[in-house]
Amino acid sequence: MYKKAILINEKGKEFSGWTTEELKPVTGELIFNTAMTGFVEILSDPSYINQIITFTSSHVGNYGLSKEDFESNEPKIEGAIGCSFTQKHSSWRAKNSITNWLKDNNVPYASGFDVREITTHLRDNGSSMFALGSESEKKELMTMIKKAKNIIGDNSAISAGRGGDKFTNSNGKIGILDLGAKKSIENVVRNNGYEVIFIKPNISYEKIISLNLDGLIISNGPGDPRSLNEIVKTIEELIGNIPIFGICLGHQLLGLACGLEIEKLPFGHHGSNHPVKVVDLKNAIITSQNHGFAIKKFNKEIRHKRFGEIAEYATNLNDQTNAGLSIWDSMAYSVQFHPEAGPGTNDGLEIFNPFFKMIKEKNAT
User: Fold this and answer.
1) Is 338 a catalytic residue?
2) Residues facing residue 288 across a β-bridge
3) Domains in the chain and their CATH numbers?
């Protein structure tokens, strides 16, 4: 039996679709994602905590679900909406359907939405907090949205990861400061011959240095980077003492540690086809992106009294926003996209190369 599903924000802006399920009412920042594949990776990416995803692709889930594509152990989104969710998948890799997986994890989803209308609204008005649920719960949804945890000031990254407390004393380790790190990042590091250890974000500078790491990756994650002041202070102490590579949220935190400013983008970048120009690369690369904040653009190199020259390492060619920092004098750099290709093209994998090169050069001294 079909039931009306609605999305509504605090101002009363409403979108409607339909569902055959009992929808658990949820709130989150409503965003749109333009990816046409990679749905499992997107749904399981911890960076989407406190967000409701609008998929602009016509059909979501045609090829089903394979655990090999998980970026974490379960869906991390608050809810998912689209034009059509495929109930019966068709792929030799699939072990389950996306819809069954969402139901098993009590994550609401609904079809029949005019995703073009929603996307146009978000582009014209910016992303904002919405509530998703059944039409019969409209009053409850309005109450929920007024009390919702806003994406501004959201510090979910503190608890989004799986960082541990027990570490080995072996050499050849790369640490991941885990703010909600994707499995794909770990895979790239392991495929390059390094052991990976996950580090809780509230760990001290002294403890990180004592781990005898070859390098440190500051991971992706959800929420507002400006809410993570203690982590920023730790990163500031680490710069220059260990090779550092920041990815997505990690890029923003590295920027804050250098004294740069962060701004909220109107509707963010969410998709797997964003062109980026990287310094010293002849061609633009196509990247996977998911972020609602960015480092404010700066046109000239900055000379930092402690870290040396800070320059723009990459630029988003869609809107010219900053997509990367280089701090080579202090063995650090970062990118505002996902070079680990989960989902997306393999274009960004070479962006890991400077990190591994810095590690080899440091070990050779």
Assistant:
1) yes
2) 338
3) 3-147 (3.50.30.20), 156-364 (3.40.50.880)
